[in-house]
Amino acid sequence: RSMSSVTVPPPACLLRPLEAPLRYLFGPGPSNVPPRVLAAGGRPIIGHLHPEMYGIMNDIKKGIQYAFQTENKMTISMSGSGHAAMECAVFNAVEPGESVLVAVNGIWGERVAEIAERMGANVHKMVKAPGGYFTNKEIEQAVEKHKPVLFFLTHGESSAGLCHPMDGIGDICRKHNCLFLVDTVASLGAAPIYMDKQSIDILYTGSQKALNAPPGTAPISFNERACQKMFNRKTKPVSYLFDMTHLSNYWGCDGKPARAVYVSFNPCVSLQGLEESWRKHKEVSGYLQRGLEDLGLKLFIPERDLRLPSVTTIAIPEGYDWREMLVYIMKNHQMEMTGGLGPSIGMVMRIGLMGYNCEKTNADMALQALADALKNCKKTRG
Ligand code: PMP
Fold first, then answer.
1. Ligand 1, closest atom to CA 29?
2. Disulfide-capable partner of 206 in 69, 82, 263, 350 (CB 3.0 to 4.6 Å)?
3. Digit-coded pLDDT (tens) for 218-277
C-alpha cells in the first residue's frame, strides 16, 4: 500500500447526488426559468475564441440593446451577479475624490453608496425611508448643491417594492453635466424603461429576475457621454476584472476584434416582446394586489402607480411573526417568499412573480399559501 500524498481526503458529500428540489421561487429573485432556458444550460461547452461564441455574444448584445431600448455600442453582459454590474458602473465612471450623489430609499442605494465610498469617492446621499421616492425638484436641488459626476437611482427598488418615476431626471443630469446611473435589476422586462429616450447614461440589470435566465450574468450599457468620461480618466479603475477598457475589447465594442468572454447564459430577453411582458406584469401584479387586499393584508406602497410590478410588498400583518409565516409557507407549500432587506427588514414581506412565473395561476397559489399561513400562524395574544 503506497502512502497517499494528499492530507485532505476527498469529501464524501461530493459522492452524493446533487440535490436541487423543485421550488416555487416567488421571492424577489432568482425566479423559475422556462424549460427552454434550462435546456440551454445543458448544451455543450464551446471555447471562448470559437466563431460561434462571437455569434452568441453579438446576439446577446442585440438582445440587451432591445431590452434596454438603446443603440449604445458599449453594451455587454458581465460575468457575475447584479452586484458585479453595480461595481463595474461605479468603478469605471468615477475617480477617487470625485463627488457622487446617491438616492437611498432602500438597500440598493445604500449598497451603491458603500461601493462608491470604498473606491474613495466623495459620496452624498439623499435619504428617504423605504418606499419613499424623490421628486425631480429634490433631485435637481441636490445635484446643484453637490455637483456630482454621477447620480445613482434605483428604478425597481426591490427591498421596498417601489418603481421610481424616471421622466425628466436624465435631462436634469445632462443640464448639470452629471452622468445618470440607473439600477434596473429587479424591474427590467417588468416595467417600461427607455435608456436612450430617458437620457440614462449607464444602465444595468441582472439575469435572474424578469429576464428569465439563471443568475450569473449582468447586462450593462454605457452611452457616449459615459464612455467619454470613463475612457478619459487620469487613474485606472480599482478593479482589473471590471475595467471597461478590457471588457469593451472582449465584447468587440471598441472596434477591435472581440477576444474572450465568460458568459454563462444567453439572457433570454422575453420571448413575448417587451411591451407584452410589461402589460402582463402589470396585469398579474394588479390581480395579486387585489387578492392580497381581499385577504385583509395591507400593501406597503400606498400609491398604486408606484408599485413595482415584479415584486409586491405587503406590510407585516399585526399579530404575526413574519419569519414564522415564511417558514410555514416554504415547509407546507414549497414556496419561497421573503422578508425585507436592509432598511425594510421587519417592515415588509415580499412576493415576486416575474418572467416565467408571472401568471395569474401562480398569483392564486401564492394567495392560497398566504391565506393558509394567516390561518395557522396567528399568535395568541395576551
Ligand atoms: N439591485 C436590485 C434592485 C436588486 O433587486 C438586486 C438583487 N436583489 C441587485 C441589485 C443585486 O443583484 P444580485 O443579487 O444579482 O447581485
1. 8
2. 82
3. 999 999 999 999 999 999 999 999 999 999 988 888 766 544 333 444 444 446 789 999
State pLDDT tens for residues 307-321: 999 999 999 999 999
Task: Convert 264-296 into a string of H (helix), E (strand) and C (coil).
Answer: CCCCCCCCCCHHHHHHHHHHHHHHHHHHHHHCC
Reported pTM: 0.94
Report the separation in Å between the CA atom of 111 and the middle of ligand 1, taken as the mean of its atom positions.
10
- ipTM exceeds 0.90: yes
CA pair distance 142, 139, nearest whole angstrom:
5
108 CB near ligand 1 (under 6 Å):
yes
> Is the beta carbon of 28 within 6 A of some atom in ligand 1?
yes
Number of helices and strands (H, E) in the chain?
11, 14
Task: Give nearest CA residue, ligand 1 atom 9.
Answer: 82
**Cβ of 83 below 6 Å from ligand 1:** yes
Q: What residues contact 304, with CB distance under 8 A and at least 6 apart?
A: 289
**Index of the ligand 1 atom closest to the CA of residue 157:** 3
The C-alpha cell 468587440 sits at 252
Cα(380)–Cα(99) distance, integer angstroms:
52
